[in-house]
Structures are given as structure tokens and as C-alpha cells.
Design goal:
Number of helices: 5
Structural class: mainly alpha
Distance between the termini: 51 Å
Number of domains: 2
Largest sheet: none
Length: about 140
């Protein structure tokens, strides 16, 4: 049963979301119920074709990684580059994610510091201190609003 959920259920909901989103963006139908019925019908019909299911199961991990990168870039743009309406909570979240990435993937960067005058540990400490200072500044700015 769980295997069928992943091989058929996830592609079904993926197609449902894509079709519903396209209908929502297109704006042809005003009624959300009609959009949902059309989306669920197309998703159900698509699940009868094994090639569609296999293709979605093959490419969905890559699409998921792509969406994560696009959302992360959007968060960074909204938090750091956009001049008006800066969201300081979003800055805190992004910086926290950067700290987690450095903590989890840090050993991959150790080889780059062999010929440098400072060690890997000192670099990580400096980055953490800088990111924490930015986080405190963002929390201070958030408190001002």
C-alpha cells in the first residue's frame, strides 16, 4: 500500500497542483470548484498512463530540488535586495538556514584551507560570528517595527 501511494499518489497530487495552478493563473474560470474538478479530472486521466507516472517519478526529485533553489533565491531577494518592505523575520530564517548548511556540509570545505594562513575552524567561527551579528541586527530592526 505505501508503495502505491508513492508511485501513483504523489504524481497524482503533483499533476493536480500543476493543473490547478495553471487554471488559477490563467483566470479563464472564475469558480474555484470548476477549476478543481477540471484539475482532478486531468490528474485522474493522467494516472491511467504508466509513461506519465514513470516520467513524473523520474523527474520529481530534480523538480523538487529546483523548487527549493528557486524559493531560496526568492527569499534572499525579498529579504536582502528588495528595498521596501524588508521582512526581517525572513532574513533571520535565511541566515539560520545558512548556518545549518555550514554546520552539516562543513567537512566538504576543509580541503580548501590547507594552504591558507587561517584554519577551517577559525573560518567557520568567523562566519558564524558575522551571521549571528547580522541576525541580531535583523532581530533589532524587527523589534523597531
Amino acid at each position: 500500500m505505501p508503495s502505491e501511494l508513492f508511485t501513483i499518489g504523489i504524481p497524482f497530487f503533483f499533476i493536480l497542483a500543476i493543473i490547478y495552478g495553471a487554471l488559477e493563473l490563467g483566470g479563464v474560470f472564475k469558480n474555484k470548484g470548476v477549476k478543481f474538478i477540471i484539475a482532478i479530472s486531468i490528474a485522474a486521466i493522467s494516472m491511467t498512463n504508466q509513461l506519465v507516472i514513470d516520467s513524473i517519478n523520474l523527474y520529481l526529485p530534480f523538480a523538487g530540488a529546483f523548487f527549493v533553489v528557486v524559493f531560496f533565491i526568492g527569499f534572499i531577494h525579498r529579504a536582502f535586495i528588495q528595498k521596501e518592505n524588508k521582512d526581517y523575520v525572513l532574513i533571520l530564517v535565511v541566515l539560520g538556514l545558512v548556518l545549518i548548511i555550514f554546520a552539516r556540509q562543513g567537512e566538504l570545505f576543509r580541503g580548501f584551507f590547507d594552504g591558507l594562513p587561517f584554519s577551517y575552524e577559525n573560518f567557520i567561527i568567523a562566519i558564524a560570528v558575522i551571521l549571528m551579528a547580522i541576525m541580531f541586527h535583523a532581530a533589532y530592526k524587527r523589534g523597531e517595527k
